[in-house]
């Protein structure tokens, strides 16, 4: 059976997405963002492809790659819509609120939620807002773009295998090992939407830079705008893997810098917060725990990459330059992630490095499997690896919690949606629940706990008087919830006026003296004023 799709699809999709992201950010910066940007992006994509006479990757997408992509869509779709009811129950509220805040321009602050400076990666929110302004739910749009990022990452890794002149058998194993890592699943469930889309475009940009420096620079700029950390890591991977000429590096830096001008002021805030945050030391067992539980997020690729190194040494086969580059990216990236997590925990820099680690370990492990597994056994071994990996992923305690909903329950999410339908105004609400931030997201209300579910990323970084005031409010709400102090509600309302009160009766006593509007199970909505 011949594969129905060619690599042109992934190339053209990446180029269009990249141009769309860059145009959207510039349009939002100028205050003229509208759905017409999509049309302009399509026209510009066609014009650039014609003018540059770009030659896309040749050949058909292997059935293994398409099968892995389809499995990813089905599995993640079943979890998101079948188990979680279409809510991102374990994601932070920040991506959704950042998207909702963008209308025709990039806002200066998070009004009407809070008067704090706007700070978030701009690439994904600007293109997602073009859908949410038409009535689509932000978390649905963000999830869909992140899934596209996962599929592009799989394609980008497979194309990198070609550029490194690895065998066709290696390309067969790349998507299998990609799914054996926990990174694709956990980050989609945890709401790392910009991270995932940037990873997909970034992996493709490394490949595109080898075919057309101009086209690849556009894609790298889009990855940098979508998630600066990932953009920098992909640029590093390009330099390490292919060691381009100095002139090309300078031109790439210049091109990316020009494209990123609109986002610079929105990233400075993060570096200011980072500079003010004191450094912390590393605990004795932190390294082992970090590797095991957080960063590799998949023992199979890790073990196979080690097996590949051992196989090369035992067989006395020389390590090529690309071999050394992959080892450096895989294990060097792992060490870098540990160091960054220890030194800069406030911005969780270290948790972004798995994108770099994934490149090295996936390609190393794929080479080991292609050398050791005979063609007639590929199907059986691949199925066995996937079965073991998926069982380990789904049955792990952390993933089980993530799938079930670590930030909010489905019942709370549905209750919040009903609250939003009851009153569409964006008004302050006292959420006496650990899920305050997520309930505010789904009901489009102003939470009494602004730090709940990282409602705003800027609140973590700022030390301004207004930010400190909001943190005091957050602390007061959390203390009241922790002590179950029903008598403290009136004092809180006098200091921080609210329109409604939502009580989770499993976490806080019911307020019998208040005017009840409606209840669903353990959740009750009260009016503050009679």
From TrEMBL:
**Keywords linked to the UniProt accession:** Membrane, Transmembrane, Transmembrane helix
> Source organism's superkingdom?
Archaea
**Residue intervals passing through the bilayer:** 12-29, 63-83, 141-158, 164-181, 215-243, 250-274, 286-310, 322-343, 349-369, 381-399
Signal sequence annotation: none
State the protein's name: Glycosyltransferase family 39 protein
């Amino acid at each position: 059976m011949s594969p129905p799709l060619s690599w042109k699809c992934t190339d053209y999709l990446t180029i269009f997405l990249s141009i769309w992201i860059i145009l959207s950010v510039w349009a939002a910066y100028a205050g003229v963002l509208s759905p017409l940007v999509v049309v302009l992006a399509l026209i510009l994509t066609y014009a650039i492809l014609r003018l540059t006479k770009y030659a896309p990757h040749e050949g058909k997408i292997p059935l293994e790659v398409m099968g892995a992509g389809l499995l990813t869509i089905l599995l993640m779709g079943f979890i998101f819509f079948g188990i979680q009811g279409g809510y991102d129950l374990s994601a932070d509220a920040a991506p959704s609120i950042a998207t909702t805040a963008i209308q025709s321009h990039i806002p200066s602050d998070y009004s009407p939620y809070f008067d704090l400076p706007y700070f978030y990666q701009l690439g994904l929110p600007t293109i997602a807002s073009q859908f949410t302004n038409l009535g689509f739910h932000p978390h649905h749009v963000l999830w869909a773009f992140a899934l596209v990022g996962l599929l592009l990452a799989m394609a980008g890794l497979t194309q990198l295998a070609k550029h490194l002149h690895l065998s066709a058998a290696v390309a067969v194993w790349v998507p299998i090992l990609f799914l054996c890592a926990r990174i694709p699943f956990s980050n989609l469930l945890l709401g790392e939407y910009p991270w995932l889309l940037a990873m997909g475009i970034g992996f493709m940009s490394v490949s595109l830079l080898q075919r057309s420096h101009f086209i690849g620079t556009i894609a790298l700029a889009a990855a940098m705008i979508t998630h600066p950390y990932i953009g920098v890591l992909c640029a590093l991977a390009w330099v390490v893997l292919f060691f381009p000429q100095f002139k090309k590096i300078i031109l790439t830096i210049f091109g990316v810098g020009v494209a990123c001008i609109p986002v610079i002021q929105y990233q400075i805030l993060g570096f200011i917060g980072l500079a003010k945050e004191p450094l912390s030391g590393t605990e004795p067992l932190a390294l082992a725990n970090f590797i095991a539980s957080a960063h590799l997020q998949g023992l199979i690729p890790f073990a196979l990459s080690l097996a590949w190194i051992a196989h090369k040494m035992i067989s006395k086969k020389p390590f090529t330059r690309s071999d050394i580059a992959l080892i450096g990216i895989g294990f060097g990236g792992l060490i870098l992630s540990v160091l960054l997590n220890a030194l800069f925990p406030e911005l969780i820099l270290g948790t972004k490095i798995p994108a770099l680690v994934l490149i090295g370990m996936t390609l190393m492990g794929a080479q080991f499997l292609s050398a050791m597994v005979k063609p007639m056994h590929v199907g059986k071994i691949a199925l066995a690896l996937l079965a073991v990996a998926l069982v380990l992923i789904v049955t792990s305690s952390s993933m089980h919690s993530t799938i079930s909903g670590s930030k909010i329950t489905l019942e709370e999410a549905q209750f919040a949606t009903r609250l939003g339908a009851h009153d569409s105004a964006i008004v302050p609400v006292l959420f006496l629940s650990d899920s305050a931030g997520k309930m505010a997201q789904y009901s489009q209300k102003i939470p009494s706990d602004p730090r709940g579910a990282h409602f705003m990323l800027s609140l973590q970084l700022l030390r301004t008087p207004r930010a400190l005031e909001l943190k005091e409010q957050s602390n007061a709400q959390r203390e009241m919830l922790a002590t179950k102090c029903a008598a403290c509600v009136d004092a809180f309302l006098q200091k921080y006026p609210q329109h409604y009160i939502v009580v989770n009766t499993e976490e806080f006593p019911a307020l019998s003296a208040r005017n009840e509007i409606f209840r669903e199970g353990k959740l009750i909505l009260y009016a503050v004023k009679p």
